[in-house]
Design brief:
single chain, alpha/beta, Aspartate Aminotransferase, domain 2, Aspartate Aminotransferase, domain 1, 2 domains, 7-stranded mixed sheet, 3-stranded antiparallel sheet, about 35% helix, globular, binds pyridoxal-5'-phosphate
């Protein structure tokens, strides 16, 4: 049996005709920039996140950059984030002219609030809390720290659409939420796309200008900014695909629970608790035999990945960031032990069972 790590084409199976019709209609209408498809998707997205507003932008990285800029973050400011995330959680800070400061994570891959507090200086302006793997970070503690030190909280929810923390959806747990709809994310465009959520009307108004060159009207530019809009073609496709989000999330969780109950005797598995509802963007196991296990599975047709083999503070691009030279023991331990198993909704039960069988077989030998 073959179990590819991902098969993006399968997501379109049930909806292909509708999507192609939508694309054809959009081409006929000529509404390529913003317009009703973008507006409709923004409204749907705000509903999903239980926020007042959602602003479509070109990708998740721009979402983070614009969210930081909306709070006036720039040169001389420090922003605390996790070193084990996708690199955009830190590059977005540097792209604003501010300095990323890393705080180590816990064994559930999310930032450790106690480490965050240790990294606060008089220059700290914000915390980017990443909901890595689709699992919400400890938002109560993070918000408590933010309140105490008067900091902005930005959620990097790129991997976590639909996830919940104490009954509330991610995207509405801080000042702003940032999402990616990149083809590999849980809700995926057929290209790049991103979204920013907020309950704050003045931030919303600012973001509408900021994604369009800083223009306040057709001819008047208020401030320099990016050209970073959610593409109307992508919005049209997303308006069709979003109808299946709950179905897909439930299937991801179903597969994750199968893995958890079958594999917990052999490897460290992620676990849900009553405070969170994780959406399993990735399903990451931890074992000291990671490399051997990965090779064993590859030989038997099962693709796995490592998210991520190089931590952000270890990247060449990060070499001039002062906090890159510090130690992050938990992040550094995880790099050698983490392995992502396939967890996409289109996996068949037979494929899931085959993965379980082969992982179990490896440890029983
Ligand atoms: C994917 C991702 C991003 C960046 O999103 P893009 O749309 O690729 O720019 C940022 N943060 C995290 C945690 C991600 O997984």
């Amino acid at each position: 049996m073959r179990v590819p790590y991902i098969n993006l084409g399968l997501q379109y199976q049930g909806d292909k005709a509708e999507i192609i019709q939508k694309v054809a209609d959009l081409i006929d209408s000529g509404m390529f920039i913003l317009g009703s498809e973008v507006k409709q998707f923004e409204e749907t997205f705000a509903q999903i996140c239980q926020t007042k507003y959602a602003v479509g932008v070109a990708n998740g990285t721009d979402a983070l950059v614009l969210a930081l800029k909306s709070m006036g973050i720039g040169e001389g400011d420090e922003v605390i984030t996790a070193p084990n995330s996708y690199l955009a959680s830190a590059s977005s800070i540097a792209l604003c002219g501010a300095t990323p400061v890393f705080a180590d994570v816990r064994d559930d891959f999310n930032i450790n609030p106690a480490e965050v507090e240790k990294k606060i200086t008089s220059n700290t302006k914000a915390i980017i809390a990443v909901h890595l793997t689709g699992r919400p970070a400890s938002m109560d503690k993070i918000n408590e720290i933010a309140y105490k030190y008067n900091l902005v909280v930005i959620e990097d929810a790129a991997q976590a659409i639909g996830a919940e923390y104490k009954g509330k959806k991610v995207g509405g747990l801080g000042n702003l939420g940032c999402f990616s709809l990149h083809p590999l994310k849980n809700l995926a465009a057929a290209g790049d796309a991103g979204m920013i959520t907020t309950d704050d009307e003045s931030l919303y108004e600012w973001l509408l200008k900021a994604r369009t060159h800083g223009m306040k009207s057709r001819d008047e530019c208020e401030f320099w900014s990016l050209n970073s809009r959610l593409d109307a073609l992508q919005a049209a496709i997303l308006n069709v695909k979003v109808k299946r989000l709950d179905e897909w999330t439930n299937r991801r969780r179903e597969i994750a629970f199968k893995y958890i109950s079958a594999l917990s005797d052999y490897v460290k598995v992620p676990t849900d608790n009553s405070d969170i509802k994780s959406v399993y963007h990735t399903f990451i196991i931890q074992t000291e035999d990671r490399d051997e296990l990965q090779a064993y599975l590859a030989k038997r047709g099962i693709d796995t990945k490592v998210h991520y083999p190089i931590a952000i503070h270890q990247q060449e691009a990060a070499k001039n960031i002062p906090s890159s030279s510090e130690a992050y023991p938990e992040t550094e331990r995880q790099i050698n032990q983490i392995l992502s198993l396939p967890v996409y909704p289109e996996l068949s039960d037979d494929q899931v069972n085959y993965v379980i069988e082969k992982v179990t077989e490896f440890f029983k030998k």
